[in-house]
Amino acid sequence: MRATKRITEQEKRKLQEEHAETLAELDHLREYLRGEVDADAEEADPDLYEREKTLALIRTLEHKLESIEQAFRLAEKGTYGICERCGEKIDPARLEALPHTTLCVNCKSQMERVAGMGVRPGWR
Ligand SMILES: [Zn+2]
């Protein structure tokens, strides 16, 4: 049986702000990338490294945006702030710092360990 928790107005506002900020940042980065491509058309990728970094940042932000949208869906179902994996309440301090998080600290660190093993076989 999963716990339920209504999203507060304050939490909702924070989530909406984070959503808007992330979208604005994505727009900005995509604009930057487009500008770079035009400016560098005659040269042989002098800023390839910068572009790679920007692309990585865009991927990170897109991932964050998905989390925020997922958090909105959870809010609609009345389970915002409830861990998606174990159904426990997420620490309020964690939600305060990361309004879009849908996992508790334990589940998050477990999943990161699994993901970490995936990208670094033989590590440790
Ligand atoms: Zn959990």
Overview of the structural elements:
The longest helix has 31 residues, at 9-39. α1 (9-39) runs antiparallel to α2. This protein has helices at residues 9-39, 48-77, 92-97, 105-119. The protein has one domain (9-119): DksA, coiled-coil domain (Four Helix Bundle (Hemerythrin (Met), subunit A)). It has four helices and no strands. The site of zinc ion has 8 residues, from α4.
In short:
The chain is mostly helical. The protein has four helices and no strands. The protein has a single domain, classed as Up-down Bundle (Four Helix Bundle (Hemerythrin (Met), subunit A)).
C-alpha Rg, in Å? 18 Å
Helix content: 55-70%
> What's the pLDDT, averaged over the residues?
86
CATH class: Mainly Alpha
Succession of helices and strands: HHHH
Q: What's the shape?
A: flat
Number of helices: 4
**CATH fold group:** Four Helix Bundle (Hemerythrin (Met), subunit A)
**Counted beta strands:** 0
Which helices and strands occur, and which strands form pairs?
Layout: H1 9-39, H2 48-77, H3 92-97, H4 105-119
Helix pairs in contact: 1-2
This protein binds zinc ion.
